[in-house]
Design goal:
The structure holds three protein chains of three kinds.
Chain A lengths: L9 H8 L8 H12 L13 H14 L14 H8 L31 H20 L8 H13 L3 E2 L2 E2 H17 L11 H6 L32
Antiparallel strand pairs in A: 1-2
Chain B lengths: L1 H14 L12 H14 L1 H4 L13 E4 L2 E4 L16 H10 L14 H4 L4 H13 L12 E2 L7 H10 L14 H11 L5 H4 L24 E2 L2 E2 L16 H10 L1 E2 L2 E2 L3 H8 L6 H13 L14 H7 L8 H13 L17 H4 L4 H9 L1 E2 L11 E2 L8 H13 L11 H8 L44
Antiparallel strand pairs in B: 1-2, 2-3, 4-5, 6-7, 8-9
Helix pairs in contact in B: 2-6, 8-12, 10-12, 14-17, 17-18
Chain C lengths: L7 E4 L3 H12 L4 E5 L6 H4 L9 H5 L12 E4 L7 E2 L15 H4 L9 H4 L1 H9 L17 H15 L7 E2 L2 E2 L23 H12 L5 E2 L9 E2 L5 E2 L21 H4 L1 H5 L4 E5 L1 E8 L6 E8 L4 E6 L2 E4 L3 H11 L16 E4 L2 E8 L17 E3 L20 E3 L6 H7 L12 H11 E8 L8 E9 L5 E6 L4 H12 L2 H7 L3 E3 L20 E3 L23 E3 L14 H19 L10
Parallel strand pairs in C: 1-2, 1-14, 2-10, 3-21, 14-24
Antiparallel strand pairs in C: 3-4, 5-6, 7-17, 8-9, 11-12, 12-13, 15-23, 16-19, 16-22, 17-18, 18-19, 20-21
Classes of the chains: A mainly alpha, B mainly alpha, C alpha+beta.
């Protein structure tokens, strides 16, 4: 069992006072402690997404990253949990982006120009996609057959579907990106449960020491992954 | 009470050797000499708070009954020592008695300073009066509740344990260089304050190298164990050359050692500023002091490296944890990286009976103090978040017995748990060592856990 | 402790600023360094294992510029409305002490001799008409021979690892046969080849090319540099680009220079100090100091000094010059002015080879500066006569450590599914068995590619954003397509089961959503003619002689190589001339 309290030591706290923006800031530790404390076997209760949004996410993420014979899928890897946690970070609140107005449309190659933070993009995009699903197939996205779900996601990606003010492709790319992050980031962020994403890729995780392996030419690196918190698989 | 201390003060004043007249004290050369003497005594490290003004006091020193704070020794007349005469100054340093007659807490190592020379004290006085900027900063009140806050027991302690102030007498038969080294180590350097084990009354057990306990390694202070400075090949400086010792004091790092804990401040604020002659004198003294019975003999064992080469990183065995967390810097063969990541194979710090230091470093990490000759503040991360107490115990036990290391005993998870729950500057109650049985109303200082080592600047304060 | 009246102000705590601050303090000046970002130390930012977190590092950009406060606007052509670059993607500026120098990769090159005299060389070989209409091809005003001692000094400070070809005219090793002679060998031997680089080396040789080890500022062994600071040996951890190196192996201002600076009482650094402008006297010929915003108190502070060094990174330098009125701003319509002119970048594409199932490329093993390259199609090393373009690219395997989230973007390569069915199979196969080969090429300067101030958007401090007008031009696309075609024989020699050549397409506009490199350059270039340069050959402003502007802003065109090595050399070159000439007699160092 890891130590239950995570008050930074005096030395690092003093450094925090000096204004570094590193992970030693207390809120970062809180997230970590939450993640460690949550037991993967007990069901996760989303902190940001509503029940309906949560159902959407579980279905959509699994379509993007399905369980197959290559390896685990988004649900195996707790990807929706990862995304939910991300919504309560500075990233999820859009504080990492330049969100000053005015906001103007432009060509796709000049990048994201919406006034929506990720959490707002999800709120809007999920509702609009569900509307679209009801319109096309009479049911919410999560209740459709997998092939219909794939078709909707493909339509969003293709750029022909607009979700209100939001281009369908923008929402889809957000979802796809966060799904991949959830599959492959360190489990302290809530996803990559049991390091399943890393095992599939043969990635050693937070190992970060290959001095003795640089000149082993040809064979796969033989050791399994280790996470920042020391979890192995 | 007052009569008693006055009488005491008078007695000691008579016992004190007369000091030269206080004239010519603002001579710039004398002030400069005094600045150097202050470096040898490392006054600044204790008498400056974290990020504080030099010598203005306020550094926290934790004790089992509360906290004391270092005092303002700038020449400010109201809040510092501006009104001290040379005699007042001398009595404080050599005898541990303040201008108002009260006895100082022996966090001030006056038992060592008792033998500082007249000329050094005079130069020091000149420096503090004319070379240090006055700072108006009242002393932080001592944070100890009554009855522990009574001061008179300190005077009792002083009478019982402090040596009579007097001129330094080198060990007979010593060459001049070693004599200079012995003076620096014994008097202003007060190395014994940390490096000599303490007795029941928390006095240093011995004050001269003729006694084998002198500089033989201290009890845990702030969960650091100041290692032996005697020539033991396993737990002391037996495998170090004089050049190694001098380089260590100058830069905090040699090919086979890295400074940590309270000694980081000593290097950063004191020894890196000493002349090469003085550093070599200290080294020469330590290497020519009378021998002590060897605690064993170290032989490198190559089988550890072989085992680790085929060990997978894991969190369930000492070897697996070592490969996952430690080998990246300290290498499978325990050799580290010269002058950056100290070797673990054969390292005396890992082989002390009391494992406090190595546990402290693993749990809280460490930073090499930047020095003028080696400015890199190389850091080791702390592992208290990455490793559970069980895992820390496993890996510490592993390294204490790997590569031929022969530490006595094992480390228990309970020890680590207790350790990890305090910040580095607080003390734990001890490490499987017998309590000395003192009761509630002790004359201060007393018992395990009394600390003479204040919170360290290293890692928290920028390089000067 | 802050110095109230410094002799010099240095804006920006990255490589250029750290070098200038070190040199000026050695000359006895008091220096205040102003950095708008936070303090950064390896002990905190590189604390293992927390720091080896791909999400917080390269994905959430922990050590990079905080875009929420300030950014740039971007458009492709002058007739468009530029829009804010709201999310970090195409280029990744740093912020905080060390700047991008803290989290860069470490590839550490000297310019090719002809890179510095590109216009003269092209004209000499192919005639002036070879230069396309609208291309502002220029010389730097300084030669390789003049810079050589400063390249040497920079490499020794950085601890650069490499294999030399010629030292003092003698061939000493199997280094880059196209590289000019050096006065000394590299301070450290080349890093080992990872498997991909090893295969590339063999295949390139077989294809008749001349492979060499990339010069890398990632120490191949424990090293102490001339300032007494220490570097540890690189262990190929793969968490290089975007991260603070916990081994002290990757050269950075924080590891290599600042420890020696911090102990100097003549040096003082203020973090959270956002410089709003350089203040000029009434004649606009002399700087009096700077005004900065103290981000902690939100108060403006004016600091006076006789010497101002702008070293805030290429485009921040140009931005400050425009905001401060230093030099004449470039006017695109009139084709007049110099500040903002010759804005350049890097033309880079990635090709990929898939090896057999038995060959595991272990792409997570890597070092930022390490790898193997060929220069056969870089710079002026080949005959451009029949080809009709200016420029070239080195071609290399530079495996810095590919981690899963980044790999998930690549997936199975072009044409492979990006998600859903079949995606994971392609992803896993690519991650385990593929080799990435880059053509990392030059980018020329054009009349209609420039920097100026945006008319609409302001940052959090009320300052108009810098506007970038940038897209890819046919000359550079042609160059890229030609060079990438030359990778094909290497692919065949690798015995790749499958390969794809990544080439630029004519007409594709610059896309801010996809990472290129952060090798932006130009905008305040050095040169010998004030009509086409903002700085003279000592990087001194032509207009305000006590302002020196150090960075890749000085490059008149983007070279094939990475820029940091040349930025460092120019910084030492400038510092040398400030110390030996300027300080004795402040004023313009070049008389016209």
């Amino acid at each position: 069992m890891p130590p239950s309290h995570l008050v930074p030591s005096r030395r690092t706290f003093v450094k925090g006072l000096l204004g570094t923006t590193s992970f030693w800031l207390f809120s970062g530790h809180q997230g970590w402690s939450d993640a460690l404390a949550s037991n993967a076997d007990s069901p996760y209760s989303p902190a940001y997404f509503t029940a309906a949004e949560w159902r959407f996410l579980q279905a959509a993420c699994e379509r993007i990253f399905p369980h197959d014979d290559v390896g685990p899928g988004a649900l195996d890897l707790a990807v929706p949990e990862f995304i939910d946690r991300q919504m309560n970070t500075s990233y999820g609140r859009g504080e990492d982006w330049f969100m000053a107005g005015p906001f103007q449309d432009g060509p796709a190659n000049l990048g994201y120009q919406l006034p929506l933070a990720p959490r707002d993009l999800y709120r809007h995009g999920i509702a609009a996609t569900d509307s679209y699903a009801r319109q096309q197939h009479g049911k919410a996205f999560a209740d459709l057959a997998a092939t219909d779900q794939v078709a909707i996601l493909t339509a969003l990606e293709g750029g022909a579907v607009t979700l209100g003010n939001v281009p369908g492709r923008t929402f889809f790319e957000q979802l796809r990106t966060n799904t991949m992050e959830g599959a492959f980031s360190d489990p302290i962020h809530g996803g990559n449960r049991h390091l399943g994403g890393w095992v599939m890729l043969g990635f050693p995780g937070a190992r970060a020491d290959f001095m003795d392996w640089v000149d082993q030419y040809g064979p796969a690196y033989p050791f399994g992954p280790v996470s920042i918190s020391g979890e192995t698989a | 009470m007052k009569t008693f201390s006055l009488a005491l003060a008078a007695t000691l004043a008579l016992a004190t050797a007369p000091v030269a007249l206080a004239e010519g004290l603002d001579d710039p050369d004398l002030v400069k000499q005094g600045a150097y003497v202050a470096r040898t005594g490392d006054c600044v490290a204790c008498h400056t708070s974290l990020h504080g003004r030099a010598f203005a006091g306020g550094l926290k020193i934790s004790t089992p009954v509360g906290t004391i704070y270092s005092t303002n020794i700038t020449p400010d007349p109201q809040t510092g020592i501006g009104t001290y005469s040379l005699e007042d100054f001398t009595r404080a340093i050599r005898a541990g008695i303040r201008k108002d007659g009260a006895t100082l807490y022996p966090a001030m190592p006056y038992p060592s300073f008792a033998h500082m020379s007249d000329s050094d004290i005079r130069a020091l006085y000149a420096y503090f009066m004319h070379g240090v900027a006055p700072v108006n900063q009242p002393d932080h009140p001592v944070d100890i509740s009554w009855p522990m806050s009574m001061r008179w027991p300190l005077a009792v302690w002083r009478m019982v344990y402090a040596p009579k102030p007097g001129p330094f007498v080198p060990t007979p038969g010593e060459d001049a260089v070693a004599a200079r080294g012995e003076y620096l180590v014994t008097a202003p350097g007060h190395c014994g304050a940390c490096h000599t084990p303490r007795g029941m009354g928390m006095q240093e057990k011995s004050l001269a190298a003729t006694d084998a306990s002198y500089l033989s390694g201290g009890a845990p202070i702030d969960n650091w164990v100041a290692p032996s400075l005697r020539n033991d090949p396993v737990q002391g400086l037996g495998t170090w050359s004089e050049d190694d010792i001098a380089l260590f004091l100058k830069t905090g790092r040699t090919d086979h050692a890295a400074v940590f804990g309270g000694m980081g401040d000593v290097v950063a604020w004191s020894t890196q500023h000493l002349t090469d002659e003085d550093l070599h004198a200290i080294a020469h003294y330590l290497k020519t002091a009378p021998g002590v019975p060897a605690s064993g003999h170290y032989t490198y064992d190559p089988s550890t490296a072989q085992t680790l080469a085929s060990t997978a990183p894991s969190n369930s065995s000492g070897a697996g944890i070592y490969v996952a967390q430690c080998a990246i810097c300290h290498q499978n063969d325990g050799s580290g990286v010269a002058r950056m990541f100290p070797p673990l194979a054969g390292n005396p710090v890992l082989q002390t009976q009391n494992p406090a230091s190595i546990v402290n470093v693993v749990v809280h990490g460490g930073v090499l103090p930047p020095t003028n000759w080696a400015p890199s503040a190389v850091a080791m991360p702390g592992y208290q978040h990455a490793l559970t107490p069980e895992q820390v115990a496993m890996v510490v036990d592993y390294v204490r017995h790997a590569w031929g290391n022969s530490a006595a005993g094992t480390v228990s998870t309970g020890d680590i748990r207790r350790f990890a729950s305090v910040t580095p500057s607080e003390s734990t109650a001890g490490w499987n060592t017998a309590s000395n049985g003192w009761g509630f109303l002790h004359p201060q200082p007393y018992g395990e856990g009394w600390t003479f080592s204040p919170e360290t600047h290293t890692g928290a304060d920028e390089a000067q | 402790m802050s110095i109230k009246n410094p002799d010099a102000i240095v804006v920006g705590a990255g490589w250029a600023g750290a070098i200038l601050a070190k040199e000026l303090t050695e000359a006895g000046l008091s220096v205040v360094m102003l950095e708008r970002g936070p303090e950064r130390t390896t002990a905190v930012e590189g604390a293992y294992p927390d720091s080896v977190d791909e999400l917080r590092g390269a994905v959430r950009h922990r050590l990079f510029q905080n875009m929420a406060k300030t950014t740039v606007t971007v458009r492709n052509t002058p007739d468009q409305t530029a829009l804010p670059y709201r999310q970090l993607a195409a280029f990744l500026p740093g912020e905080g002490v060390g700047g991008a120098g803290l989290h860069w990769s470490g590839v550490h090159f000297r310019a090719a001799a002809e890179d510095l005299t590109l216009r003269s060389t092209v004209v000499e070989r192919y005639g002036e008409k070879f230069i396309p209409e609208g291309m502002n091809l220029q010389d730097y005003g300084v030669t390789y021979d003049e810079l050589e001692p400063f390249y040497d000094k920079a490499e020794k400070v950085f601890g650069t690892a490499g294999t030399a070809y010629k030292v003092n005219g003698q061939v000493v090793g199997d280094g880059n046969v196209f590289a000019p002679s050096r006065s000394d060998d590299f301070p450290l031997p080349a890093l080992k080849d990872v498997y991909s680089a090893h295969l590339f080396r063999g295949a390139a040789k077989e294809a008749g090319y001349h492979p060499y080890s990339l010069p890398a500022a990632n120490a191949s062994a424990q090293y102490t540099n001339p300032y007494g600071v220490q570097m540890g040996p690189c262990n190929f951890c793969g968490f290089c680009s975007g991260y603070d190196c916990y081994m002290y192996s990757k050269a950075s201002p924080n590891v290599n220079i600042l420890p020696a600076l911090r102990g100097n009482p003549n040096f003082s650094m203020l973090t959270g100090a956002y410089v709003l402008r350089v203040n000029l006297d009434d004649d606009k010929k002399r700087a009096t100091g700077v005004t900065y915003l103290d981000l902690a108190t939100n108060k403006e502070v004016t600091l006076n000094a006789d010497l101002v060094i702008l070293s805030a990174f290429q485009f921040h330098n140009v931005h400050l010059m425009l905001l401060s009125g230093i030099g004449q701003p470039y006017d695109y319509a009139k084709n007049e002015g110099v500040v903002g002119r010759n804005f350049v970048y890097q033309t880079i594409t990635t090709s990929r080879a898939w090896l057999s199932e038995k060959q595991f490329t272990n792409q997570f093993i890597g070092t930022g500066g390490g790898g193997v390259a060929i220069d056969d199609f870089n710079c002026m090393n080949f005959d451009h006569g029949p080809l009709g373009f200016v420029g070239g690219s080195p071609i290399w395997v530079n495996q810095a450590g590919v981690k899963p989230i980044a790999a998930s973007g690549t997936g199975g390569g072009h044409g492979a599914p990006r998600w859903g069915e079949g995606y994971k199979k392609g992803l896993v196969n690519t991650y385990k068995h593929a080799v990435a080969i880059d053509a990392h090429g030059s980018n020329m300067a054009y009349h209609d590619i420039f920097l100026d101030l945006d008319p609409t958007w302001k940052n959090a401090y009320g300052v108009p954003l810098l506007r970038m007008t940038f897209t890819w031009k046919d000359n550079d696309v042609r160059m890229n397509r030609y060079v990438v075609g030359k990778i094909e024989p290497i692919m065949k020699a690798l015995g790749a089961e499958k390969y794809e050549l990544g080439m630029k397409k004519y007409g594709d506009p610059f896309d801010t959503r996809f990472y290129q490199t952060t090798h932006l350059g130009g905008g305040a270039v050095m040169g010998t003619d004030p009509k086409t340069s903002a700085l003279n050959r000592y990087l001194q402003s032509w207009d305000v002689s006590n302002v020196f502007v150090i960075g890749s802003n000085a490059f008149p065109q983007g070279m094939g190589y990475n820029p940091t090595g040349t930025v460092a050399a120019l910084a030492y070159w400038t510092a040398h001339h400030i110390r030996t000439t300027y300080l004795k007699n402040p004023g313009p160092l070049v008389q016209l």
